[in-house]
Amino acid sequence: MSVAAVLTAAGSGSRLGHALPKALVPLAGEPLVRHAARRLLAARAADGQRIETLVVTAPADHVAHVERSLTGLADGVRVVVVAGGPTRQASVAAALAVLGAPVPSGASAAGVRPTDDAPGDPTVVLVHDAARPLAPEELVGRVIDAVRAGRSAVVPGMPVTDTIKQVDAPQGAAEGLAAARVLATVAREQLRAVQTPQGFTFDVLRTAHAAAAAHAHDEALAASDDAGLVERTGGAVWVVDGDERAAKITTPRDLAIAELLLRDERA
Ligand code: CTP
Ligand code: MG
Questions:
Q1: Complex ipTM tops 0.95
Q2: Ligand 2 centre from 27 Cα, in Å?
């Protein structure tokens, strides 16, 4: 059994509005992607197993910059930085190609396939967002352990605390003049806000991506998380406890909160 991870860092960070792509924006003096990678690589499964291969997606014009931002972290781990695609889904697919996943069509990428596992002893692949730089090691370990315990697709989930209402207008539509009307209040007990890292057997993840490859470059049709692709193929997805420290940095406010949390953690 081996564990590989994909760290997505190819987004532009348009909502953060920084001059640099989001993954390269500093948090306490270090780029987000470096924080996220350090915590991933420090994680251990219950039996001590750690991530052996890390594939990081970078904006095409920042591959070398992302490589430099990871200097000194590898410590025996194989780290590969690849150019991402136009959507998160396309970026993960590009990383899986580097992992050498032979897609069902028979195409295959020369690469750094992480494993020579015996049959029946699957490789675990985590997919994690650099935009969640403070996701703790324990959470990473919990996800790996759940996959190894036989759950072939695992997401960390948090209870939803706000009251959620369904409205008749898409997100982003102007609501300043009360233009959106409430259709219903959604029962919250069965809702979870999901995070990363998400964990999969290599087989389940590459099959889900291969099935959705036609939509990977289309912002409107691409999936915003990998478990969503598994759901589309009819596969079961399981939830483990999430962690509030795995919150995603989307806006400048999120970055400011992460700065405070990190200061607290180091105090
Ligand atoms: N991501 C990626 N490739 C893309 C788009 C996103 O690898 N084409 C990654 C981001 O780098 C991030 C994660 O997916 O780590 C989650 O995406 P999001 O938070 O939306 O980041 P951005 O797309 O960079 O931000 P924005 O949507 O505000 O532009
Ligand atoms: Mg985005």
A1: yes
A2: 19
